[in-house]
Amino acid sequence: MDIWQQTFSLDDLNAMSKNTLVEHLNIQYCAKTNHSLSASMPVTSYTHQPFGMLHGGASVVLAETLASVCGNMCVDKKHYCVGIEINANHIKGKKQGVVIGTTEVIHLGKTTQIWQVDIKDEEQQLIATSRVTLLIKKMYTK
After folding, report:
1. Tens of pLDDT along 27-68?
2. N or C of the chain: less Cβ packing under 10 Å?
3. What's this model's pTM, rounded to 2 decimal places?
4. Is residue 68, in this structure, part of any structural domain at all?
5. For residues 65 and 40, is the Cβ–Cβ distance under 8 A?
6. Options 23, 64, 85, 104, the catalytic residue
7. What is the CATH number for 88?
8. If we measure between CA atoms, which residue out of 1, 5, 121, 12 comes closest to residue 62?
9. Count of domains forming the chain
10. Which of 44, 32, 63, 45 is nearest to 126 (CA)?
């Protein structure tokens, strides 16, 4: 079942990220199915905490980015989504390489959406897991 109400490509999403925190962290959308979206993020000095490990906040940025983009692609153009809650469990540390976040929907409602985001390393080991709740709002027009 295809959940997307908007038509988009990975190139569209990557272009949309120009001049944002997403671009600064070098997050790149890398895979799309009819019910999921994935993005990669390098583990470098830009995403490290002071002790040389992947910063939990960077993982949360990846998770919220994926969920928010997916949420907005699952509503019609008269609506948009905003994050209202996020939780994250940091499972394993990572010093270098790449992590890939993949999000899948848990709930697509009329007023809220819930998304599960798993962040894994190159060996498919779970680094972090997050759940994001989005509120669906109607576009304001004058």
Report:
1. 999 999 999 999 999 999 999 999 999 999 999 999 999 999
2. C
3. 0.96
4. yes
5. no
6. 64
7. 3.10.129.10
8. 121
9. 1
10. 63
